[in-house]
Amino acid sequence: MKRDSELAARVVEGDAQVDQLEHEVDGLVVRLLALRQPMARDLREILAALRIATDLERICDYAANVAKRSIVLNQSPPVKPVYTLPRMVKLAQALTKDVLDSYVARDADKALIVWARDEELDEMYSSLFRELLTYMMEDPRNITASRIFCSWRKMSSASAITRPTSPRRSIF
User: Global pTM?
Assistant: First the structure.
């Protein structure tokens, strides 16, 4: 993985913009609920959009966390490469994109596929956790790197975006 402190700083700065966008969505939802009093499908659609906005903002918070820790970590010599992390990051990005695409397309089958693919992410997490635990035992300075990993995992699965209780019911 590339060590890019400038990119990390831009991610940290961008978090405030995403926070502002989430507040705008909140305001629009409250206004829409008050003025239009939606029912049934319209209400579900509005609540889903609100939930997605909240989850995306949370993902951005975790990304800012990773970026801050990366800047600190970049001041130190590189630690041993963690081979699972780049694959895990790509999968988490793909799952988030796919579930948002399924929402936009109103494709419940695609949402179910994404939901099932989260198991693969869980397996990567377990593997990476064991690998990082070994590195931390070898050298406690590797603890910062393991914190970054934990934030990546939270980004990928802590939200309802990739872990809906029932994809069909909560998305559509």
Answer: 0.77
- Alpha carbons 95 and 163: distance in angstroms, whole number: 10
CB 62 within 8 A of CB 137: no
Instruction: Check whether 166 has a pLDDT greater than 80.
Output: no
How many domains are there within the chain? 1
Instruction: Read off the tokens for 136.
Output: 């931390």
* CA 83 – CA 19 distance, rounded (Å): 32
For the cut 70, the answer to whether the pLDDT of residue 159 exceeds it is no
Residue range of the domain that includes 9: 5-171
Angle (CA) 83 85 89, round 5°: 140
Q: What crossing angle do the helices spanning 5-36 and 40-73 adopt, rounded to 10°? A: 160
